[in-house]
Every structure is written in C-alpha cells, then in structure tokens.
Design brief:
Blueprint: H1 3-34, H2 38-69, H3 73-105, H4 113-118, H5 121-141, H6 144-169, H7 176-208, H8 221-240
C-alpha cells in the first residue's frame, strides 16, 4: 500500500467514525428527552467537543491529501465528497447537542409522553435514524441504491412534518410551552434528514460521478419559520452559555 492509499483509507475510517458518532449523539439526545434522562443529555453535551474536533481533523486530512498527493478520478471525488460532507455531519451533532440541552432543562418539568406520540416524534426520528444507517452502509459498501433510498425517506419525513405543523396550529394554548419545545426538537430532527440527503448526494457523486444540480426553489413559509425558530433558539442557547 503506497502513502496515498494509506491516507485515503485513514480518511475513510475517520469519516465513518464521524458519521457513527453523529448518529450516536442524535440517538442519545432524543432518548434523553423522551426518557427524561439528564445524565444521557449531559453525556451528549460533553461529547459535542469530540464531534467538532473530528470534523476539523478530517478537513485538514482532505486538504493535506489534495496538496501533497494531487489525487485524481475516484480518489479525488472521494476526498471532495468527504470535505463537503463533514460540515453537514457536524451540524447533525449540533442538533443533537441542542436537543440534549432541552432534555437537561426540562428534567424537572417533564414533557408528557403522549405529546411525543401525538406529534410523531418517534416516527420522524425512526426514519431519520434509518437514513443515517443507510448512509453509513452506502458509504462503506459503495451502494448507491441505499444512498438514493434516503431521498424517499426524506420526502416522507417532510410530509409528516408539514402535517405536524398544521396540527400544532389548532392545539390548546395551555400546551404552548411543551409545543414550542417539541416543535424545536422535531424541526432539528427534520433538518437532520435534509443534511443526510446532502451527504447521500455526495456519496453518489463519489461512487458514480453523478453531480446533483441544486435547483433551489422558494422555501415554503413553514420551512422559513422553522429556520427562524432554529436560529432564535441557537442564539438564546449561546447567550445562556
């Protein structure tokens, strides 16, 4: 094995490690909220630093490989795909961190589990976790069909998400505190599915050299509102810390 091949293999292993770590973070954060487990939430919050450090390490490895070895063809596509994907994986870690902070803050004011069922938290999260598993397997086995399967699941999640917003608009004002937290959580889980779709596109580019042209349409008002709430919540969390 020459030096380039060694660096490429190490890069692949590091990327898989980051993907699996981000998945673990999201799983633990949602479980911490649903099961009212503050210790689980704190574990996710502490591990966020590891996610950030691994992202930076992978980015540096990509830059080093391109600068020193000037890879071509499949190797170049792999490095570019990973370089473009690591920030999306890290953002999934950010979403997990945010959900864990809600779980920690609501530890003494538990959200009723019936609300999780009513607003499809279990359903959406299960689909996102399946997408995450498919992404890891698709990358490891170079299976583009698995990667493309995430597109279907993402559409299914978007449909459930839109229905969820309609339901929330008609619910009792007495539930407003719980609804705002549930909405923030589901919005981040839904956003994670979009990020996983981005990663799937990069995996397909690496394997098949197929480029997805992102023809951005005007976002639905519902999506704009979700982004506004996410931004506002992140700002509040930064101030709290």
């Amino acid at each position: 094995m020459n030096h380039l091949n060694y660096e490429i293999e190490y890069l692949k292993e590091s990327f898989i490690e980051l993907l699996e770590l981000a998945r673990t973070q999201l799983v633990k954060s949602v479980n911490a909220l649903i099961n009212n487990d503050a210790s689980f939430a704190e574990e996710v919050i502490r591990t966020e630093k590891r996610v950030n450090a691994l992202e930076l390490s992978i980015e540096k490895s990509c830059e080093t490989i391109i600068a020193l070895f000037q890879p071509v063809a499949t190797d170049l596509r792999l490095v570019l795909a990973i370089f473009k994907s690591v920030s999306d994986v890290e953002r999934i870690g950010d979403h997990a961190d945010f959900i864990s902070k809600i779980a920690r803050d609501r530890h003494e004011n538990v959200i009723n589990k019936i609300i999780f069922e009513k607003y499809a938290v279990y359903t959406i999260f299960k689909l996102v976790d399946e997408m995450h598993v498919d992404i890891v397997t698709a990358f490891e086995t170079k299976n583009t069909e698995l990667a493309r399967n995430t597109f279907r699941k993402d559409k299914e999640i978007n449909k459930i998400y839109r229905e969820l917003i309609k339901t929330m608009k008609t619910d009792s004002a007495e539930l407003i505190a719980d609804l705002l937290d549930i909405y923030s959580v589901v919005a981040r889980i839904e956003r994670s599915s979009n990020l996983l779709t981005n990663i799937a596109e990069e995996i397909i580019f690496y394997i098949d050299a197929e480029i997805f042209k992102h023809k951005k349409k005007k976002k639905l008002k519902i999506d704009q509102k979700a982004e506004q709430i996410i931004t506002a919540d992140n700002t509040e969390n930064d101030e709290d810390e």
